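chain below, 195 aa
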Amino acid sequence: MGRKKVEMKRIENKSSRQVTFSKRRSGLIKKAREISVLCDLQVALVVFSPHGRLYDFSAGDSVTNILKRYRNQNDANDAESSNDGLTGVSPAALLQIIQRYVVEDPADDVQLTLNDLEQLEEQIELALTQIRARKMQLMLQPLKTLQEQESKLKEENELLQQQISAAASDNNTAYGTIKGSVQDVVQAATLQLLH
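prediction:
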């Protein structure tokens, strides 16, 4: 007696869906482990449950390293398959292309044409220009910050000088008033002594 074929549609019963997810997840991880052992592969498996819980499996390397490698390879493949050739390539993908086809021994079946090499050269020059511009921006950032601080300190200095001038003029006025009051008291005391 064989199994009946399961119709591929969403399972409406929540508990049945959870049970099916658990069983199939275990089977999927088992198959990933088997293929990695049998074929000596690096395998990464990432699954999110309906509730958002992460389940991952890796064989040969960590999931993070395998995904980074996938991302780099995918960027390089996108760059190669674009109909403009190498235009619009990210610096990381460009570096990977250079390393793969120019620095290392290129494979016999994968050779860059003269047009591809010219585009690669243009991309390298563009990337260098962008890198130099970013470097200059990073070098000038502290200078700009110092100039802003200098202007703020100048403003504060001017404000303090104004406050000192105002306080000094107030002190002179107050000193004159006190001096006059003291003289009046001395005269009054002298007059009392004379009488």
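The beta strands are 43-48, 54-59. The mean pLDDT is 78.
thats it, cya
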